[in-house]
Amino acid sequence: GWFGEHARRMKNYNHLASAGVLIPADRQGRLKGGRLRFKLRDDVELPLLRRALASLSRVHFAAGAREVYPAVARGHALRPGDDVDAYFEQAIREADDVTLSSSHPHGGNGRNADPAKGVVDLDCRVHETDNVLVTDASVFPSCIRVNAQLTTMAMAHYATAGDPFAARL
Questions:
Q1: 161: domain range?
Q2: Of 137, 54, 132, 130, whose CA–CA distance to 91 is shortest?
């Protein structure tokens, strides 16, 4: 919402809940001219995104929500009884119609014994360094499609177990 509508919503901030959906979009990004290009496929990810957001809206209504504010470009508040499937079918025609984000980016700093094929070695140490470890989800080979916190913690434990350098951090 904007201006007055936003102010009205913020007055009820203590009654707001936030949630999001995770959808797999493995290997959809491409580097072209030094820039990342990311496109959701019209026949795969976009229908999945529509269904996931409709389901999440229904979950909120089942829990007693009076309004749901989808993160879509031309959005408005949904209310109980609205046809959420029809709403998302109309509101999301392309990826730019919805706010996409990733709070758990996976991959990008590949692990490989060969420096030409990976950023970090098999011990999660940046190649050609002796004091830089990367132990976050960026060293995963691909998106694991779930919250990565426990896996990331396990990766950090693996990379630092018995390492005298890491013990001094």
A1: 103-169
A2: 54
Are 72 and 112 found together in one domain? no
Residue 49: in which H helix or E strand, if any? helix 45-62
Q: Diameter of the chain by CA atoms? A: 60
Residue 43: other Cβ atoms inside 10 A: 7
**74 and 110 together in one domain:** no
Sequence-ordered list of residues with C-beta below 8 angstroms from that of 128, at least 6 positions apart, any chain: 115
Pick left, alpha or beta for residue 3 (phi over 0 → left; psi -120 to 50 → alpha; otherwise beta). Answer: left
Q: How many domains does the chain have?
A: 2
Whether residues 85 and 59 share a domain: the answer is yes
Consecutive 10-residue averages of pLDDT for the chain (169 residues): 78 79 72 72 91 95 92 85 96 86 73 90 88 86 77 86 60
> Is 138 in the same domain as 158?
yes
Q: What span, in angstroms and rounded, lies between the C-alpha atoms of 153 and 7? A: 39
Backbone angles phi, psi at 111, to 5 degrees: -95, 125
